[in-house]
Specification:
By secondary structure, the protein is α+β, with helices and mostly antiparallel strands. Helix content is 40%, strand content 25%. The protein has 27 helices and 34 strands. The strands form 7 sheets. Strands 1, 2, 3, 4, 5, 6, 7, 8 and 9 form a 9-stranded mixed beta sheet that branches. Strand 19 and strand 20 form a beta hairpin.
Length: 900
């Protein structure tokens, strides 16, 4: 049975038993900044378990894409070295939201495993939480297990929680016996194998049934959830290994084709050498993780999610080097990921070109990183090779500083183990002290990276969150009327201030108001919330903002400006029309911009974030290269063509699958239910969107790009304005153009040609000046040589030659070296507040006084850094005021080095 057949059979089994098949949510948790990545099937149902959200179904089944490579659930270091760990995997799960509980969950599990999948009953055992007598008895009843087939285990093994806080409960795991022929450390030590509780591979966990009963807060207190629920998870890769008779998930049809791809690229055969096998498994797994993460909007960077993606990719690239793959290769392997999994997850097929380009660029950058890292290592070797204070007792070799290895890894992305190998080959040693220092720095980095990753925003300390949990269960979901109206009568359902429910709010107070119906749009999908007014019989207030609390409560932040507002009273609600019109113009403009970018730059362009404000829009999108001015102009022109055509904007509501099947694009960071709103603009753009839009594109008036640039690796940003804000922007640009032309006393359209000529003249004059200054400095070389001083028996020449750039300084140094055959030279220059330094040391002295180390020490004093060879090095700095002091410190450095 193939992996695809297993997935399909699982979903169909539960569909026949009344479960709604729910598509996988993105790997970037939607509207949940507390999680690094989606790491379990229940993540998309968190608000349902907490009672914050109601759905049209009480039973669900999913095949959820997951990544575990950071935070509490971090399998990264084990991947490739064990038979069962993966960073990316699929979690098959069935869920009950207050419908069935333990008995049906256990019955479904047993029936599917033994009847539909045909697993031998005598090779299965179950574990339950220590105190869960109900589950213990149910396994006896449903499966016919005797007490010897059911193990009671503690909280570590059989109590499940997503994180330190949030939904949790006892669980029961099903384990499959792979055979006693597999090695067991317990038996090797003369003890008995512990069965499912053992760490050996004889028993493998295949299904975890979580009986979701509690919500745990930050203090550890557990309170019952509104309704006991079921959350189960079964790794597709592990199940495939069991059903296909394999010992490892890497030997299944889900991963083996990727290993075969690596075999072809490397010319090596899998199964012959364990070291090479580990590398092939790492590459296969990490290619899957990178493909899916990039598809879901993550880009490699040095921050949080992007940092983890970069670690995954670079770990794979390093293992490629270990297989002899010097050229970029990982981008090619992602193509096999698409071939294997594209049918189940069409989004990776659509993003194929973007994924390959992002990975290829990262590989090229990593090649540069390796070169840079090797340069830093050479500098470290030169600076510390003779350091007597860094040797280990009984070992004359110098010890590597763990902080240096961490800086090398964290700043430059240079892998620890590769740096360790290079340094050991050079005569250094890596001790437990080195490792401990590196680990301490890495742990601190991880803590910073996941500081926001404690699960359960309900206990984050945000004022008023707890009250909204209660209100979401008590109140019906407010009705949004804002697509067709800017004013409506409504009733106040609740008033909340400072985390407490209030009966009334008086003049001068700020209060959060929940209405039964509202025309005000709550901030979501990048569009800012509406402002407006609330007017009652005895008071009124100004709506300052509108937003969601939880997943369904629309909240209005209101300042009471007159009288008082009371819970239960009827009010008139209106939205500020001019502001709403600006939001509509910029939101429809955003859709046109997205479509135009895909037409000009390619279909790999995908939204990576957006802001829709009443006076401007900001749109982040995936694109691996810079955007040319001509391309920006073409995009702007395409949008304005659609504006001039005055195309009707057609909203429609339909089922999610129907919408996606019609070609509608789903946007980054937006959460979609089973029924979605589709915004179609002729044949130019079709997107899923719950925001407010114009009736026709002509109402935009004018679309104008105001800025374009990079915001992260592989992510660009465009800012633009529409309507009157676009006209005002054009007016400011024209005024600036006229003013600039007036200064030169030329017509405005002549300005580019005249500026180009002036800049060319300036460049020519600056070059002439630099040549003259260099010639003058070289003519004074003999005077400079005469001024050299003897320090510790060594001629030392320092001088400040302001106005020279690094090339000019090197030219003077070359002249001085001819006239000072033995000695140390350091020249400095200040230009526009920036410092340049060039050091040279004659061959007879460079081992004792390496130029690279000299320039490093001196550059620190001027707020900079640098390096180079033992005979010639250069550096830069930011503090020209310290240049004289820095040059004066050269003599002291020479004396210290002479005594070392």
């Amino acid at each position: 049975m193939t992996g695809s057949e297993i997935r399909a059979r699982f979903l169909e089994y539960f569909r026949r038993r009344g479960h709604t098949v729910v598509r996988s949510s993105p790997l970037v948790p939607v509207q949940d900044p507390t999680l690094l990545f989606t790491n379990a099937g229940m993540v998309q149902f968190k608000s349902v378990f907490l009672g914050e959200e109601r759905r049209d179904y009480v039973r669900a089944v999913t095949a959820q894409k997951c990544v575990r490579a950071g935070g509490k659930h971090n399998d990264l270091e084990n991947v490739g070295r064990t038979a069962r760990h993966n960073t990316f995997f699929e979690m098959l799960g069935n869920f009950s939201f207050g419908d069935y509980f333990k008995e049906d969950a256990i019955r479904f599990c047993w029936e599917l495993l033994t009847e539909d999948f045909g697993l031998p009953k005598d090779r299965l055992k179950a574990t339950v939480f220590t105190d869960d007598d109900d589950a213990f008895e149910l396994w006896k009843k449903v499966a016919g297990f005797g007490p010897d087939r059911i193990l009671r285990l503690g909280e570590k093994d059989n109590f499940w929680a997503m994180g330190d806080t949030g939904p949790c409960g006892p669980c029961s795991e099903v384990h499959f016996h792979q055979g006693d022929h597999l090695p067991c450390a317990e038996e090797k030590a003369g003890r008995t194998c512990l069965g499912p509780a053992c760490d050996c591979d004889r028993w493998v966990e295949i299904w975890n049934l979580v009986f979701m009963q509690f919500n745990r807060d930050a203090s550890g207190k557990m309170t019952p959830l509104p309704k006991p629920s079921i959350d189960t998870g079964m790794g597709l890769e592990r199940l495939a290994a069991v059903l296909q008779g394999k010992q490892s998930s890497f030997d299944t049809d889900l991963l083996r084709p990727l290993i075969a791809h690596v075999e072809r690229l490397s010319g090596k055969t899998y199964g012959r050498d364990e070291e090479s096998d580990v590398s092939m498994r790492v590459i296969a797994d990490h290619a899957r993780a990178a493909t899916f993460l990039i598809t879901d909007g993550v880009t490699p960077s040095n921050e949080w999610r992007g940092y983890v993606l970069r670690r995954i990719m670079r770990r794979a690239m390093r293992h490629g080097r270990m297989l002899g793959l010097e050229a970029p290769f990982l981008w090619d392997v992602t193509g096999s990921v698409v071939a294997v999994m594209g049918d189940a997850y069409p989004e990776i097929r659509d993003a194929r070109a973007r994924v390959a380009e992002t990975v290829r660029q990262e590989e090229e950058r990593f090649a540069e990183t390796l070169d840079l890292g090797m340069a830093r290592i050479r500098e470290y070797l030169e600076a510390h090779k003779a350091d007597p204070n860094r040797s280990h007792a009984g070992d004359a070799r110098p010890i590597v500083d763990g902080r240096f290895l961490f800086t090398l890894y964290d700043t430059h992305g240079f892998p620890f183990d590769l740096a360790q190998e290079v340094l050991q080959d050079a005569g250094f040693t890596v001790t437990s002290e080195t490792q401990q220092t590196f680990d301490a720095e890495m742990d601190a980095q991880r803590e910073r990276a996941r500081a926001r990753a404690s699960f359960g925003a309900a206990d984050s300390g945000e004022p008023g969150v707890a009250i909204y949990h209660r209100l979401s269960t008590e109140l019906a979901k407010p009705q949004f009327l804002g697509y067709g109206s800017l004013a409506a009568p409504a009733r106040i359902l609740a008033l909340v201030a400072e985390g407490q429910r209030r009966r009334e709010a008086r003049q001068g107070e700020t209060v959060e108001i929940i209405l039964d119906r509202t025309p005000a749009y709550a901030e979501s999908g990048g569009q800012q919330g509406d402002t407006g007014s609330v007017i009652g019989r005895e008071g009124q207030g100004q709506i300052q903002d509108t937003y969601y609390r939880g997943s369904q409560l629309i909240v209005h932040r209101v300042v009471v400006t007159q009288g008082h507002l009371r819970e239960g009273e009827e009010v008139a609600v209106s939205v500020e029309s001019r502001r709403r019109q600006g939001l509509r113009q910029h939101h429809t403009g955003t859709h046109l911009l997205h479509a135009a970018l895909r037409k000009v730059l390619g279909t790999h362009v995908a939204q990576a974030g957006s802001l829709v404000a009443p006076d401007h829009l900001r749109f982040d999108f995936s694109h691996g290269a810079s955007v040319k001015d001509s391309e920006v102009e073409e995009v702007e022109g395409l949008v304005n063509e659609q504006v001039q055509a005055n195309i009707v904007v057609s909203p429609a509501e339909m089922d999610l699958q129907e919408a996606l099947g019609s070609g509608a694009m789903a946007l980054f960071g937006e959460k979609y239910g089973d029924r979605v709103r589709v915004i179609r603009i002729g044949d130019f753009s079709t997107e899923l969107c719950g925001g407010t839009h114009l009736d026709a594109t002509g109402q935009i008036g004018l679309f104008k790009v105001t800025d374009e640039g990079a915001v992260a690796s592989g992510v660009r940003r465009i800012e633009a304005v529409t309507g009157p804000h676009a006209l005002a922007h054009v007016g400011r640009e024209e005024a600036a153009l006229r003013e600039s032309a007036g200064l030169l006393k030329i017509p405005p359209l002549e300005l580019p040609r005249r500026l180009a000529a002036l800049l060319e003249d300036q460049k020519r004059l600056e070059k002439q000046l630099a040549q003259l200054e260099t010639k003058l400095a070289r003519s004074q070389a003999q005077d400079l040589v005469t001024a050299a001083k003897q320090v510790a028996g060594v001629p030392v020449l320092t001088a400040r030659l302001d106005g020279l750039d690094p090339d000019g300084l090197r030219a003077v140094v070359d002249t001085l070296r001819d006239r000072l055959p033995s000695g140390i030279i350091l020249l400095g220059s200040a230009v526009d507040g920036k410092v340049s330094l060039v050091a040279a040391v004659s061959k007879d002295l460079m081992k004792r006084f390496p130029a690279g180390r000299l320039v490093q020490e001196i550059a620190k004093m001027v707020g900079g850094g640098g390096g180079g060879r033992p005979d010639l090095a250069q550096a830069g700095g930011k503090d020209a005021s310290k240049l004289d002091e820095a040059l004066g410190a050269v003599a002291g450095w020479v004396e210290r080095m002479a005594q070392a």
